[in-house]
Amino acid sequence: MPKQLTSERSSGELDSLVIAGLLESGGNLAFASHAVAIIAGFGSLAALNNVSKLLCAVSLLFWLLSCWFSFRVAIDASLFRHLAYGGSEGWQRLDELLGDWGLWHGPGGRTTADRWRGAIVLWRRQTGVLILQLATLMLAIVVNVGGPHV
Question: Considering only CA atoms, which of 9, 7, 8 is closest in space to residue 17?
Answer without folding.
Answer: 9
